[in-house]
Amino acid sequence: MKNRILLLFLLCLIKPCNAEQVRKPHCDKHEVVPTYDDSPLVAAILAADDVFEETYVPQPDLFAPRKAVIVTCMDYRLNDFLSTVTPGTYILRNAGGRLTEDWIRSLVILWKLLEVQEIVLIQHTDCGMQKFTDKVMKDLLEGSLGQAKMVHNCNVTLEPVQDPNVCKWKNTSKCCGKEACIDYDCIDWLTIKHGLFKSVLEDVKLIRKHPLIPSDIAIYGFIFDVITGDLIPVPKAIKAGRAKPLYCKK
Q1: Which of 61, 175, 199, 231: CA 20 to 30 A from 11?
Q2: pTM, entire model
Q3: What is the SS3 assignment for 109-144?
Q4: How does DSSP classify residue 164?
């Protein structure tokens, strides 16, 4: 690699070239990519939907039976839990179950137009957002747009909390890296730095304090254990999210 960069540099002395050509290595990602016509995933989804349609009951009502919303992580291990304990409930999901501006947008729509009265925030053990830092993600993306592989795990259990830097990641290719705040807008990855109890409390407080979330909306905080299936209340978060009658100044 060093010889290659040196060669490019020498070529620049003979023929003008830009810094991108020197800095960015050749992309070594696979040339074969999935398409709609040959994707086994798409075929399986369509086949499953054909079966689902046979017993599907039309649902014309816009308003969910439960006037509540679950805000949680996108981790697939929560799928069975959510389908079992939260039928008829609105669900918002993202990486880590972290509060974002887009979630505020959705929460305001839910209470203002769709009659939601309770918000349940659930984060979970062994969450990917406990396993890297903003700097780690920056460095990985700068090195490659290819996928990264975890080579050392961390924060598998609820406690004790480990430093996210204990986890180690390695790029699987040297493809087309991008520089933070230059090639793309700066991103706060909203990692979980100090454990799930603090993270849940922090996000519940942010929802509670937002000027567009009225005080009479109840907010609860929980942690789901992906090993035992236990849903663990976070007392400080539940206290911080307690609903109060809404009084408006005239």
Answers
A1: 175
A2: 0.86
A3: HHHHHCCCCEEEEEEECCCHHHCCCHHHHHHHHHHC
A4: G
Please check whether residue 74 is in contact with residue 93, taking contact to mean a CB–CB distance below 8 angstroms: yes
Cα(24)–Cα(15) distance, integer angstroms: 18
Contact predicate 46/96, CB 8 Å? no
Q: Which residue has the tokens 């291990």?
A: 77
d(CA 190, CA 150): 19
In Å, how far are 56, 87, 103, 219 from 59, measured between CA atoms? 9, 13, 25, 28
CB 10 within 8 A of CB 4: no
The single-letter code of the amino acid at 155 is N
- Can you give the C-alpha Rg of the chain in angstroms? 23
**Side-chain half-sphere CA neighbours of 150 within 13 A:** 13
Q: How many CB atoms within 10 Å of residue 96?
A: 24
Report yes or no: 115 and 67 within 8 Å, Cβ to Cβ.
yes
The count of residues in the chain is 250
Q: What is the pLDDT of residues 38-70, one digit of tens each?
A: 999 999 999 999 999 999 999 999 999 999 999
Contact 222, 158 (CB under 8 A): no
Q: Which two tokens stand for residue 184?
A: 């793309």
* Angle formed at CA 247 by CA 216 and CA 233, multiple of 5 degrees: 25
Cα 210 to the chain's mean position, in Å?
Answer: 21
Residue 58, judged by CB atoms within 10 A of its CB (0-12, 13-18, 19+), counts as exposed
25 within 8 A of 3, measured Cβ to Cβ: no
Q: Give the DSSP H/E element, type plus range, for residue 93.
A: strand 90-94
pLDDT tens digits, one per residue of 93-133: 999 999 999 999 999 999 999 999 999 999 999 999 999 99
